Amino acid sequence: MKVLVIQQRYGIGDMVIFTPYFQAISKKLKTPLTILAKDSSRAKDLYSDDNHIKKIITLDASNDGLFGTSKLINQLKSEKFDKVFIFNNSFRYRIVCILAGIKEIFQYKNSLFKKNDVIFETAKHFTESCLKEQVSTQSNIIVKNRISDNKKIKSFFNEIGKIIVLGISASGPTKRWDLENYSKLIKNLSELCQCKFILAGGKNDQILINKVIDDNNEIKFFSLADMTIKDSLPILKKAEAYIGNDTGFLHLCAALGVNSLGLFMDSPAHSYSGYSPKINVVVPEDETIESTSHNTRGKNNISFDKVLEKSKEILSI
User: Is the full-model pTM beyond 0.90?
Assistant: First the structure.
């Protein structure tokens, strides 16, 4: 049996959130899945060690959207899938799957959607209705223990201290806590215990990373800026905690079993934290986990004292 799953959202965090549902489908049907996903989701990196997933078909400019429909139909037809699970209610994807000759099509119904849709709840309801069994919302990214020959990595891990991932990156400035706050947090935590910091960000965050390192020159840092997500996963898994913005690294750490503290200043906290008991939350003053949204614009109302106290809690210091 050949089974396709379609998850077209852009983000790494989105893909992490959908992971338990993919794994549940694979286990129920006793077959590894093929996933149709955008490259920005980093699905190839996320599932490189996961036997529930055997192949990723990338959605890109050539096969996505109206003008890519014909190519996508031919791609899927050549794979000869028996079933497809479509994690959206797009009519186009349904037509593509019909024309690709897929006999069994499971897809979100419009009735699943409501105002302020909570993505993990909708995915859970859909998967459980298809499989006729309960499915956990907790994500688990499967990672093999790969030993790196990188001298900087070895040196970093050989140093004494709690390993803390700092998520200083974000998809936009309204979702990013100011760097001065992170420097203040680094100083406070370093006074309380021996610790060292993994700076979680990509190549586009190099200026931010350099700023944090320059402002805290006595602290031990390791930057992930030059690493792929695949190579970052075994490193993140060794951390004691994640503290930082609502970004893909928050979801990766939680899915690797790392106690995490997410700062939700301009995104729906419940939708992007409620799926995992590993994610603790700080929201702006006068907001709640349920009230935050993509238009909260609350970065200046995140309490430093609350972040520090919750950081101490998850680090047990």
Answer: yes
**Distance, CA of 236 to CA of 222 (rounded, Å):** 11
Domain of residue 101 covers 3-131
Number of separate domains in the chain: 2
Task: Look at residue 79 in the predicted model and tell me its pLDDT.
Answer: 98
Where residue 232 sits, what CATH number does that domain have? Answer: 3.40.50.2000
- pLDDT in the model for residue 111: 56
Residues 60 and 206 in one domain: no
